[in-house]
Write a structure and sequence with these properties.
about 525 residues; alpha+beta; six-stranded mixed sheet; 13 helices; binds guanosine-5'-triphosphate; binds magnesium ion
């Protein structure tokens, strides 16, 4: 989602509406402010008319001011594009950049919390909120208005469920954040995977409302699946936000909060998170905005002495990747725009305007015409940045998502066979896992049919050591080393070299059956 673009469209619409004749305008404004005008109070009618007139004037003035503001922004952007080398060099050390994915069970409050963050960071004005409140009410989804900031398409708003990963930006004192709002519904897990594979930090949203924590946490609930996927996909830190603390069934109860924390902790450990170092719990109300930008007031919650969400996000440390490493950017999307534009997150190295690069695995040699970070054109972008890169030398049709923009001197390997260590989670109908097993492989932006061609070794889950006897099949919960084949060449790395490009999941019929890491590449399979 692009808030700036949306604002522009809204403003354009408003400017257009001002050109209508005044009767229409008055009607529009009166309707827009339905909730504000008290229609029952007859004696106040005259006053109301005055109010409407004033609102009209205010509104005109506001639109004018907004238009001036937009013009100013466009000018600023143009200027910054002119001397962006200097700007980039100046801006680079000032703020770090973090990608944060919001994950968790359906209806936990991910979009509401994401929307509230944008509201609290001053990116959504009261007027827009009022508009969303009205729209949500019309759709009989009163409490969903905050989620509408992130859920921008009609299907999402009507159903109250995120489908596409929403994207937005906000800043705190120390950090520029990109928020990725993943869908919680089990039908959209592949979209969640693509969101999580772009992020370093996860905000796991859990509903504390009676019954909701339980449904999300039970087998088949997405709280579990999302945590396991996030870990595998390289989300190294988790903030577990216990949401809906304002709900009447919770009412900021310490007992409920402690119950959720104590049930989640062993599960997070079992999923591979170091709970002391990499996980932090905190209570919030995404809908009301409590304990988000400022700490919760003692009169609301006497027992919480920890940080609020903004503080916790700002304090999250992630391992810095090497800006001088070989360039790797998995392509998640592409389109035509004065050349071929590819989108993705830089996993290693830096990209500069004018660089020569190669798109793998099809070995297309390309030239970098321009680099965009968020909405801004920049001269260079480093690891962790979500970027759009305009290329010459390759047609848009010749690129697929999962291809990797890569350095020429050290291109990413491409293979059709690799060795991996797999953890079997849950096979369909408790099937057995053996040579010949087929599934869909998800690794960074790659989605490919794959087949297990040989089981090599089973690993003892307790000692983590290989077991002696030969392995022909394994069941749920097993850890096994095996050879995996795909039909098309894919670009991957060994987990030990580039964790982000060497972790994967196997899915069948819409369920995650295993997570794994690449332990060896069969380079002769290229
Ligand atoms: P999906 O995108 O479908 O996975 O859901 P989601 O996690 O994005 O949830 P969403 O933000 O759409 O919110 C679902 C419902 O929970 C809405 O009715 C929200 O108003 C409600 N909700 C979210 N946060 C809170 C909260 O802090 N307190 C209360 N009381 N309700 C909340
Ligand atoms: Mg949502």
């Amino acid at each position: 989602m692009d808030i700036d673009e949306k604002k522009m469209v809204d403003i354009e619409e408003e400017i257009r509406s001002l050109q209508l004749d005044s009767a229409d305008t008055t009607e529009m404004i009166a309707e827009d402010n339905n909730g504000v005008v008290n229609a029952e109070d007859e004696s106040a009618q005259h006053e109301e008319l005055e109010k409407v007139d004033k609102m009209e004037e205010d509104s005109k003035e506001e639109v004018h001011n907004q238009a001036v503001e937009v013009e100013k922004k466009v000018k600023e952007k143009e200027n910054s594009a002119l001397d962006d080398e200097a700007t980039f060099e100046k801006e680079l050390p000032k703020k770090r950049h973090l990608n944060v994915v919001f994950i968790g069970h359906v209806d936990a409050g991910k979009s509401t919390t994401g929307g509230q963050i944008l509201f609290l960071s001053g990116q959504v004005d009261d007027r827009t909120i009022q508009k969303y409140e009205k729209e949500a009410k019309d759709k009989s989804r009163e409490s969903w208005y905050m989620a509408y900031i992130m859920d921008t398409n009609e299907e999402e708003r009507v159903k109250g469920k995120t489908v596409e990963v929403g994207r937005a930006h906000f800043e705190t004192e120390m950090t520029r954040f990109t928020i990725l709002d993943a869908p919680g519904h089990k039908s959209y897990v592949p979209n969640m995977i693509s969101g999580a594979s772009q992020a370093d930090v996860g905000v796991l949203v859990i509903s504390a409302r009676k019954g909701e924590f339980e449904t999300g946490y039970e087998r088949g609930g997405q709280t579990r699946e999302h945590v396991q996927l996030a870990k595998t996909l390289g989300v190294s830190k988790l903030l577990v936000v216990v949401n809906k603390m304002d709900d009447p069934t919770v009412n900021w109860s310490k007992e409920r909060y402690d119950e959720i924390e104590s049930k989640m902790t062993p599960f997070l450990k079992a999923s591979g998170y170091n709970v002391r170092k990499d996980v932090q719990f905190l209570p919030i109300s995404g809908l009301i905005g409590t304990n988000m930008k400022t700490r919760v007031d003692k009169s609301v919650c006497s027992w919480w002495g920890g940080p609020c969400l903004f503080e916790a996000l700002d304090a999250t440390e992630i391992p810095q990747r090497d800006p001088k490493g070989p360039f790797r950017m998995p392509i998640i999307d592409k389109f035509k725009d004065m050349g071929t534009v590819v989108m993705g997150k830089v996993e290693s190295g830096s990209v500069r305007e004018g660089d020569s690069m190669v798109v793998m695995p099809n070995k297309a040699h390309v030239k970098v015409l321009a680099v965009f970070c968020d909405e801004d054109k920049v001269k260079r972008a480093g690891p962790g940045e979500n970027v759009r890169v305009r290329l010459s030398g390759v047609e848009e049709e010749d690129i697929l998502s999962g291809f990797v923009l890569s350095s020429i001197s050290r291109p990413i390997p491409s293979v059709s066979e690799f060795e991996a260590q797999l953890q079997i989670l849950e096979l369909l109908d408790n099937a057995i896992f053996t040579a010949g097993y087929k599934a869909v492989l998800h690794i960074h932006a790659v989605v490919e049919e794959c087949e297990i061609v040989e089981l090599l070794q089973q690993i003892d889950p307790k000692t983590k050591k290989p077991m002696k006897r030969k392995v022909l099949f394994v069941k749920n919960g097993a850890i096994v080393v095996c050879r995996v084949q795909v039909n098309n060449l894919i670009c991957i790395e060994k987990f030990s070299d580039f964790p982000q490009l060497g972790r994967f999941t196997l899915r069948t019929e819409g369920k995650t059956v295993a997570v794994g890491k690449v332990t060896g590449l069969n380079l002769s399979s290229a």
